[in-house]
Amino acid sequence: MDTELGNKNEPEQHQNKNRMKLFLVFLNCMLMAIGQVTGPLLMRIYYLHGGKSNWLGAWLLTAGFPILIIPIAISYIRARAREQAGRLLVTKWLFGASAILGVLLGLDSYLYSFGMSYLPVSVSSLLGSSQLAFTAIFAYIVVKHKFTHYSINAVVLMTFGSLILGFHMNGDKPRGEPKGKYILGFFMTIGGAALHGFLMPALEFTYLKAGKAITFDLVLQVQFLISMFATLFCSIPMIINKDFQDISKEAAEFGLGETKYYTILLIAAIVLQFLVIGSLGVIFSSTSLLGGLVSSLLVPVQQAFAVIFLKEVFNAEKGMALAMCLWGFASYLYGEYQKPEANKEESTD
Prior knowledge:
Elements: H1 2-48, H2 54-62, H3 69-81, H4 92-118, H5 121-128, H6 131-142, H7 149-167, H8 179-208, H9 216-240, H10 243-253, H11 258-285, H12 288-297, H13 299-309, H14 316-348
Helix pairs in contact: 1-4, 1-11, 1-13, 2-4, 2-9, 2-11, 3-9, 4-8, 4-9, 5-13, 6-7, 6-8, 6-12, 7-14, 8-11, 8-12, 9-11, 11-12
GO molecular function: purine nucleobase transmembrane transporter activity; purine nucleoside transmembrane transporter activity
InterPro entries: EmrE-like, PUP_plant
Family: Belongs to the purine permeases (TC 2.A.7.14) family.
């Protein structure tokens, strides 16, 4: 009798597990959307109205990591309520890997921050979308994700989209900005996309080699460590350059006023942490490739917000690059959709 009840409960438990997984995927995708769309807009406003520190921009990407103490504390309290010992779940391997990934994330943050200081959001977002191509390449190398002609098509299309922007970069250069800095910002953003494309499969690889079950509580602790090490990495050059001391001076001279300066920095730190949490959470609840797909899908939204709120020009070259980005995204998504169908046919044969 008990065996029959157990067998009946198994499908229900499996269904509940799938629902929870879908909920986590949706929640993390929403956090990614909030961070990826709002964060760059706020940082571009910071640079347009007098902000000068690239390291401060990089620091803000992960400086909101203390927010994670709240869910970690809730998890600890729930464990105590269930009479389970609350403990540090991170192993030595995960701690070391988190430190390395955190340093790389800090460097990646600086590359993106530098690019945002000289490029319009509409350009930096399109260049950033090339991370899907880099994610596909590194996922193949690091976690042995197989290439298909759909993924190859996506890589080629997004590469050409970046080249189109590169050949017509003079038309987007803000007035008074040296061409050399604009070009440097262009390549720094490409470098940031490449490094971010590596970080996502690298985190997936870290989970695979953890040697223990990857639970939600463990992921929260790993996220905390990665963001903490990234923040520490960015804090060192800020201390050397005395950027922390210059914040009050920069606030006093900010074009929109001192109050709005601090408001922009505070909100940027929070929403950018949402981006980090969402990106790492998508990898936990799905794969690094889904994270790259969602990031590319958000590019048109970034474009629209940049045109509406920052009055950026949307010219033919950007339209062509965007079309290639969406085409590449659709190709990759269709290829991922076809994989389960192909696997079914193989198992049937």
